[in-house]
Design brief:
The structure is a homodimer of 149-residue chains.
Chain A (H helix, E strand, L loop, with lengths): L13 E5 L3 H12 L3 E6 L2 H5 L8 E4 L5 H6 L7 E4 L4 H14 L4 E5 L6 H6 L3 E3 L1 H18 L2
Parallel strand pairs in A: 1-2, 1-4, 2-3, 4-5, 5-6
Chain lengths: 149, 149
């Protein structure tokens, strides 16, 4: 439910990932091991260096809130932008810039606070909300138990 | 995948929720609106006061790492403990105490760092890992697009 179908239809994507935390680094390694071209942007050198050996893409050290950093990441050529910084406001800003300025076909952003979901959706940004995913998981777990009674 | 089937088979549960952050408060309101008896424990009074009007359960202000707090929450009577503090180590500790000391039939804990999953699983604690849920969501979103090509 946190994901809306997109429009990119190639088999191999050029993917720019903003934010190299737990989620960003994991998804970066996964996507690069699947043969996609992946660039990861983070302002923390340690985070970038902690990428697993499976990751065969590029890293860019810099502030993703600066246009030059996103230009260096060639966001204008990207099929997909995954905006996964730890701050909702930063993510809204970067996602909007990806969508409007760089015309990235698919922009998927992490949203921490479910109250912010609407802001993202109204700009056509696809969203991943771990809080809501976890709520769904817990509901599902309790319903499964209930069904057995 | 982040949830293992449990053994509680009643229709209405007595549920103790540790941690009243975004996830805890949401799930507390949801479960209490479904007619379950819910007690929420947090050390932050503001967090407890921010619970929505839908929440009709009890709140306990206190450190969940102290046995007395968990006794006050009547964890020994609980069908389910949801351990949702923002710290994996705290969650391991509380989940273990729920399982072993209070014999809570189902203990579900949030795990932030996927590297900690094994520790929880080996003690029979069910886990919710928002990072892995988000990875799955992103994979799914990209596969859906791929299938359309």
């Amino acid at each position: 439910m946190a994901i809306i179908k997109g429009t990119v239809k190639k088999k191999e994507y050029y993917i720019v990932i903003i934010g190299c935390g737990r989620l960003g680094s994991r998804i970066a390694s996964l996507l690069s091991s699947q043969g996609h071209s992946v660039v990861v942007v983070d302002r923390d050198e340690d985070a970038l260096q902690a990428l697993s050996y499976e990751f065969s893409g590029f890293t860019i050290l810099g502030e993703a809130t600066e246009l030059d950093t996103l230009k260096n990441a060639k966001l204008d050529k990207a099929d997909i932008a995954l905006v996964l910084s730890p701050d909702d406001n930063t993510n809204i800003m970067i996602a909007l810039v990806a969508k409007e300025y760089f015309s990235t076909p698919r922009v998927i952003a992490r949203v921490y606070d479910p109250n912010n979901l609407e802001v993202f959706s109204q700009f056509g940004i696809e969203i991943i909300c771990p809080t809501l995913l976890a709520v769904e998981s817990i509901k599902e777990a309790l319903e499964i138990a209930g069904d057995e009674s």
